[in-house]
């Protein structure tokens, strides 16, 4: 199915009816109440899914989920998802690892929001988006970025201007083009690197477990 930008998929506390596997779309998970007291805490893209919470035995969504980058995704009813989990332990094991990564990402973005300035935070979020977007170009207005970062629009305008002057991105009326990926990584706070290290550790652990399981069955 196609997900459109800004589409609301779940509200916090609502019963989960479907899980989503983004292909080239990505979904923002956000915490908070009201129109302004909302903070983006994680991004979910092709590397994982929306609805991994079900593994915790709860059938309600803990966070608001809104499409941040429109595109395609696979959708599955919760009952079918539960059947797959019950019959495919390998799938469940992988999803548990991905859920662990989402929790780590939520912790890191919270640390980031408290301790890091807007310019480096914007670079961090643009990198996370770039990892999940199908191309170097994506559309995000200052308003959307401000809501994601939990800051004023003027703060985002200043931070985007600084990144643009350093020729790391081009930003025109919401159209963002990543010009210098490596430079953007250098401009980000350490939070982005922490996420990459976490992801590598999980992949290594899964491979190791997989190898151990193969050896055990041989
Ligand atoms: Zn940070």
Description:
The protein has helices at residues 78-87, 89-115, 118-132, 142-149, 153-165, 181-187, 191-217; strands at 2-3, 8-10, 18-22, 26-33, 37-44, 64-69, 71-77, 137-139, 169-172, 175-178. The chain is an alpha+beta fold and 218 residues long. The protein has a single domain (2-217), classed as Jelly Rolls (Sandwich). α2 packs antiparallel against α7. The longest helix has 27 residues, at 89-115. β4 (26-33) and β5 form a beta hairpin. Strands 2-6-4-5 form a 4-stranded antiparallel β-sheet. A 3-stranded antiparallel β-sheet has the order 1-7-3. The mean pLDDT is 92. Bound molecules: zinc ion. Residues 112, 116, 121, 124, 189, 191 line the site of zinc ion (ZN).
Taking all residues together, what is the mean pLDDT?
92
Bound molecules: zinc ion
CATH topology: Jelly Rolls
Estimate nothing, just give the exact number of structural domains.
1
Number of strands: 10
Overall outline: globular
Structural class, judged by helices and strands? alpha+beta
Say which CATH homologous superfamily is assigned: Jelly Rolls
Stretches with pLDDT under 50, minimum 5 residues:
none
List keywords for this structure.
3-stranded antiparallel sheet; binds zinc ion; 4-stranded antiparallel sheet; 218 residues; alpha+beta; Jelly Rolls; single chain
Kindly summarize this structure in a few lines.
This protein is α+β, with helices and mostly antiparallel strands and 218 residues long. It is built from 7 helices and 10 strands. The strands form 3 sheets. The chain has a 4-stranded antiparallel β-sheet with strand order 2-6-4-5. It has a 3-stranded antiparallel β-sheet with strand order 1-7-3.
